[in-house]
Amino acid sequence: MFTEDELEHLREHLSHYPERRAGAIYCLYAVQDKIGYIDDKGIMMVTELTGLSKTQLEELITFFTLLRRRPVGRNVLRICDSISCHVMGSRQVLEAAEAHTGVALGEISRTGSVTILPSICLGLCNHAPAALLNDEDEVSRLTPESVQKLLDELDQQPFQQSATGSQVIATSGHSMLTEGRDH
Question: What is the pTM of this model?
Fold first, then answer.
Protein backbone atom coordinates (compact mmCIF):
# COMPACT_ATOMS: atom_id res chain seq x y z
CA MET A 1 0.00 0.00 0.00
CA PHE A 2 2.77 2.46 0.94
CA THR A 3 6.34 2.66 -0.19
CA GLU A 4 9.09 2.46 2.41
CA ASP A 5 9.73 6.21 1.93
CA GLU A 6 6.06 6.97 2.62
CA LEU A 7 6.09 4.76 5.72
CA GLU A 8 9.25 6.47 6.95
CA HIS A 9 7.56 9.83 6.44
CA LEU A 10 4.61 8.65 8.55
CA ARG A 11 6.92 7.32 11.28
CA GLU A 12 8.78 10.64 11.32
CA HIS A 13 5.51 12.54 11.57
CA LEU A 14 4.33 10.34 14.44
CA SER A 15 7.53 11.04 16.36
CA HIS A 16 6.43 14.68 16.81
CA TYR A 17 3.38 13.74 18.89
CA PRO A 18 3.56 12.80 22.56
CA GLU A 19 0.09 11.24 22.13
CA ARG A 20 -0.11 8.60 19.36
CA ARG A 21 -3.83 9.23 18.84
CA ALA A 22 -3.12 12.73 17.48
CA GLY A 23 -0.58 11.42 14.98
CA ALA A 24 -2.91 8.59 13.98
CA ILE A 25 -5.28 11.09 12.36
CA TYR A 26 -2.53 12.12 9.97
CA CYS A 27 -1.87 8.47 9.10
CA LEU A 28 -5.56 7.81 8.52
CA TYR A 29 -5.75 10.78 6.16
CA ALA A 30 -2.71 9.41 4.32
CA VAL A 31 -4.50 6.08 3.78
CA GLN A 32 -7.62 7.87 2.60
CA ASP A 33 -5.61 10.04 0.22
CA LYS A 34 -3.93 6.97 -1.19
CA ILE A 35 -7.00 4.85 -1.96
CA GLY A 36 -10.01 7.15 -1.48
CA TYR A 37 -11.19 5.72 1.83
CA ILE A 38 -9.82 3.81 4.83
CA ASP A 39 -10.01 0.06 4.27
CA ASP A 40 -9.18 -2.79 6.66
CA LYS A 41 -5.65 -3.06 5.29
CA GLY A 42 -5.13 0.64 5.98
CA ILE A 43 -6.49 0.25 9.52
CA MET A 44 -4.01 -2.57 10.16
CA MET A 45 -1.13 -0.50 8.80
CA VAL A 46 -2.01 2.46 11.04
CA THR A 47 -2.42 0.06 13.99
CA GLU A 48 1.12 -1.18 13.38
CA LEU A 49 2.50 2.35 13.03
CA THR A 50 0.78 3.82 16.08
CA GLY A 51 0.23 0.94 18.48
CA LEU A 52 -3.43 1.92 18.74
CA SER A 53 -6.07 -0.79 18.53
CA LYS A 54 -8.47 -1.20 15.64
CA THR A 55 -11.27 -0.08 17.97
CA GLN A 56 -9.40 3.11 18.86
CA LEU A 57 -8.88 3.89 15.18
CA GLU A 58 -12.54 3.18 14.39
CA GLU A 59 -13.48 5.65 17.14
CA LEU A 60 -11.31 8.33 15.52
CA ILE A 61 -12.80 7.68 12.08
CA THR A 62 -16.32 7.86 13.48
CA PHE A 63 -15.58 11.16 15.24
CA PHE A 64 -13.89 12.96 12.33
CA THR A 65 -16.51 13.34 9.61
CA LEU A 66 -13.92 13.99 6.87
CA LEU A 67 -12.54 10.46 7.32
CA ARG A 68 -14.31 7.78 5.30
CA ARG A 69 -14.52 4.06 5.99
CA ARG A 70 -16.32 3.21 2.73
CA PRO A 71 -15.64 3.94 -0.93
CA VAL A 72 -17.20 7.09 -2.38
CA GLY A 73 -18.02 8.36 -5.85
CA ARG A 74 -15.57 10.32 -7.98
CA ASN A 75 -16.85 13.44 -6.23
CA VAL A 76 -18.06 14.00 -2.69
CA LEU A 77 -20.71 16.65 -2.12
CA ARG A 78 -21.11 17.57 1.54
CA ILE A 79 -24.37 19.44 2.01
CA CYS A 80 -24.63 21.32 5.30
CA ASP A 81 -27.62 20.49 7.44
CA SER A 82 -26.83 22.64 10.47
CA ILE A 83 -29.31 25.18 11.79
CA SER A 84 -28.54 28.10 9.42
CA CYS A 85 -28.62 25.91 6.33
CA HIS A 86 -31.62 23.95 7.62
CA VAL A 87 -33.62 27.16 8.10
CA MET A 88 -32.69 28.21 4.56
CA GLY A 89 -33.85 24.93 2.99
CA SER A 90 -31.05 22.38 3.17
CA ARG A 91 -33.53 19.56 3.91
CA GLN A 92 -35.21 20.17 0.55
CA VAL A 93 -31.80 20.35 -1.16
CA LEU A 94 -30.76 17.02 0.40
CA GLU A 95 -34.06 15.41 -0.62
CA ALA A 96 -33.70 16.71 -4.20
CA ALA A 97 -30.12 15.42 -4.37
CA GLU A 98 -31.14 12.01 -3.05
CA ALA A 99 -34.05 11.81 -5.51
CA HIS A 100 -31.83 12.89 -8.41
CA THR A 101 -29.13 10.28 -7.75
CA GLY A 102 -31.64 7.53 -6.99
CA VAL A 103 -29.62 6.30 -4.02
CA ALA A 104 -29.60 7.00 -0.30
CA LEU A 105 -27.34 9.66 1.16
CA GLY A 106 -23.86 8.27 1.70
CA GLU A 107 -24.13 5.83 -1.22
CA ILE A 108 -22.37 6.11 -4.57
CA SER A 109 -24.66 7.38 -7.33
CA ARG A 110 -25.54 4.92 -10.08
CA THR A 111 -23.21 6.75 -12.47
CA GLY A 112 -20.37 6.64 -9.92
CA SER A 113 -19.98 10.39 -10.21
CA VAL A 114 -20.90 11.44 -6.69
CA THR A 115 -21.57 10.53 -3.09
CA ILE A 116 -23.76 13.01 -1.21
CA LEU A 117 -23.20 13.38 2.51
CA PRO A 118 -25.10 15.51 4.99
CA SER A 119 -22.57 17.48 6.96
CA ILE A 120 -22.75 19.38 10.20
CA CYS A 121 -21.62 23.01 9.86
CA LEU A 122 -19.25 23.75 7.03
CA GLY A 123 -18.73 27.29 8.32
CA LEU A 124 -20.54 28.75 5.31
CA CYS A 125 -23.60 30.06 7.15
CA ASN A 126 -23.66 33.35 5.22
CA HIS A 127 -24.07 31.30 2.01
CA ALA A 128 -26.82 29.00 3.29
CA PRO A 129 -27.78 26.47 2.23
CA ALA A 130 -24.21 25.60 1.36
CA ALA A 131 -22.08 22.63 0.41
CA LEU A 132 -18.47 21.64 -0.19
CA LEU A 133 -17.51 19.76 -3.31
CA ASN A 134 -14.51 17.47 -2.80
CA ASP A 135 -13.73 19.21 0.49
CA GLU A 136 -12.42 22.20 -1.46
CA ASP A 137 -14.98 24.03 -3.59
CA GLU A 138 -17.74 26.01 -1.89
CA VAL A 139 -21.22 25.79 -3.37
CA SER A 140 -23.45 28.61 -2.16
CA ARG A 141 -27.15 29.31 -1.85
CA LEU A 142 -28.28 25.92 -3.06
CA THR A 143 -31.81 25.20 -4.17
CA PRO A 144 -33.33 21.88 -5.19
CA GLU A 145 -32.97 23.01 -8.82
CA SER A 146 -29.36 24.17 -8.50
CA VAL A 147 -28.24 20.95 -6.79
CA GLN A 148 -29.85 18.92 -9.58
CA LYS A 149 -28.00 21.03 -12.17
CA LEU A 150 -24.72 20.50 -10.29
CA LEU A 151 -25.32 16.75 -10.13
CA ASP A 152 -26.03 16.68 -13.89
CA GLU A 153 -22.72 18.48 -14.49
CA LEU A 154 -20.86 15.98 -12.31
CA ASP A 155 -22.48 13.11 -14.22
CA GLN A 156 -21.19 14.58 -17.49
CA GLN A 157 -17.58 14.94 -16.32
CA PRO A 158 -15.31 12.25 -17.72
CA PHE A 159 -13.52 10.08 -15.20
CA GLN A 160 -10.13 11.53 -14.33
CA GLN A 161 -7.69 10.39 -11.75
CA SER A 162 -7.23 13.42 -9.60
CA ALA A 163 -5.27 14.48 -6.60
CA THR A 164 -8.18 15.81 -4.56
CA GLY A 165 -8.09 15.50 -0.82
CA SER A 166 -5.70 16.65 1.81
CA GLN A 167 -2.58 15.13 0.22
CA VAL A 168 -0.97 14.78 3.61
CA ILE A 169 2.30 13.25 2.50
CA ALA A 170 4.42 15.75 0.62
CA THR A 171 8.14 15.76 0.04
CA SER A 172 10.13 18.59 -1.56
CA GLY A 173 6.91 20.34 -2.52
CA HIS A 174 5.35 17.42 -4.39
CA SER A 175 2.90 14.81 -3.22
CA MET A 176 3.97 11.20 -2.87
CA LEU A 177 0.37 10.00 -3.01
CA THR A 178 -0.83 11.05 -6.45
CA GLU A 179 -0.01 7.83 -8.26
CA GLY A 180 -2.43 4.93 -8.39
CA ARG A 181 -5.42 6.83 -7.08
CA ASP A 182 -8.80 5.74 -8.25
CA HIS A 183 -12.03 6.55 -6.49
Answer: 0.73
Asked whether the beta carbons of 31 and 42 are under 8 A apart, the reply is: yes
Domains of the chain, with CATH numbers?
A: 4-69 (1.10.10.1590), 75-156 (3.40.30.10)
Q: Which of 71, 29, 73, 77 is nearest to 49 (CA)?
A: 29
The DSSP output letter for 169 is: -
Pairing of strands 114-119, 75-80: parallel
Question: Inter-axis angle of helices 40-50 and 54-63, to 10 degrees?
Answer: 110
**Angle at the Cα of 92 (from 75 to 89), degrees rounded to 5?**
100
Task: Yes or no: say if 2 and 45 are a contact pair by the CB < 8 Å rule.
Answer: yes
Distance CA 168, CA 4 (A): 16
Neighbours of 152 (CB within 10 A): 11
pLDDT digits (tens, 9 = 90+) for 25-37: 999 999 999 988 9
| pLDDT tens-place string over residues 52-87 | 999 999 999 988 878 989 999 999 999 999 999 999
